[in-house]
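User: Design a sequence. Structure:
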């Protein structure tokens, strides 16, 4: 089963903190809020923690990482659920250690210092069993294979493998894609109960292409169909000319909803090919479950 050799797939994504101000005991003005790229709000459990400045710093960095443009202090305060004064002091400290920089009157964006974080990603490593199984599936299918988890309304890619003959790949570990634009998103949401789905899925759905599903009722119907079928298919929702098929993965002791996906060219899309990929994906998912992937909780 080797089709679409050398092609590539892209998941578009919505593009030692020191003392002083970061030791502030100032409380936030409201409950901290984390937003998914779909616009949904995910309230944090951090009310029981006693380091609001550290939490603010983390949320500022995540918010800037997900924003395609610089953000002013007022917007950062609103997005992170912190007061403007705390946000201002945190930004000054982050600027001092080269993690953020001012864009003049346009606000703040990430600075070169964050590249040290990207360099550290390789030190985390991937569980050997996961790497082996993803590599074998990629070689068998001749396609890029992604392992992802549900993070709010986004799918977060935490591991990937691509065939040797792939000319280029711009899918990367850490990429996010709205759940309504991916097969992984549908199959992972299908693992939730109705109450959880209503909480996670925003009223207004984002789009990445003209084929992205933006009608909430239609999207929820496809999620329900994925639950019945045990797998999900996305046709050009993330990028035109590409399809993806995904299955859920059960990892004992792993708290997040996880899934496995293979992507292919629409030129190869046919019921029999999808069935072949589904069979291969299901086999790999069962192997991951039996392997009791050690270290998966860190992905």
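Assistant: Done.
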């Amino acid at each position: 089963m080797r089709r679409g050799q050398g092609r590539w797939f892209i998941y578009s994504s919505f593009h030692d903190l020191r003392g002083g101000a970061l030791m502030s005991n100032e409380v936030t003005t409201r409950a901290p809020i984390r937003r998914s790229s779909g616009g949904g709000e995910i309230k944090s459990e951090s009310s029981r923690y006693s380091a609001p400045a550290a939490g603010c710093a983390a949320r500022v960095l995540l918010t800037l990482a997900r924003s395609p443009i610089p953000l002013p202090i007022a917007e950062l305060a609103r997005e992170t659920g912190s007061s403007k004064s705390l946000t201002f002091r945190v930004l000054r400290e982050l600027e001092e250690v080269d993690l953020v920089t001012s864009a003049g009157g346009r606000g703040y964006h990430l600075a070169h210092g964050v590249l040290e974080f990207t360099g550290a990603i390789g030190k985390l490593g991937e569980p050997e069993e996961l790497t082996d199984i993803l590599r074998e599936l990629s070689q068998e299918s001749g396609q890029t294979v992604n392992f992802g988890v549900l993070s709010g309304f986004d799918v977060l890619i935490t591991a990937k493998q691509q065939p040797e003959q792939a000319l280029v790949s711009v899918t990367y570990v850490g990429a996010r894609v709205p759940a309504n634009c991916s097969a992984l998103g549908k199959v992972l949401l299908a693992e939730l109960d109705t109450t959880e789905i209503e909480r996670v899925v925003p009223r207004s759905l984002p789009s990445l292409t003209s084929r992205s599903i933006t009608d909430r009722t239609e999207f929820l119907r496809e999620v329900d169909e994925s639950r019945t079928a045990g797998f999900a298919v996305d046709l050009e929702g993330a990028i035109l000319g590409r399809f993806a098929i995904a299955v859920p993965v059960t990892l004992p002791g792993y708290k997040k909803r996880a899934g496995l996906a293979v992507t292919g060219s629409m030129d190869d899309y046919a019921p029999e090919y999808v069935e072949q990929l589904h069979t291969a994906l299901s086999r790999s998912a069962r192997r991951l479950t039996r392997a009791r992937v050690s270290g998966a909780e860190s992905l």
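The chain has two domains: 20-96, 121-298. Strands lie at 33-35, 41-43, 100-102, 108-110, 145-151, 154-161, 176-178, 232-235, 242-249, 258-265.
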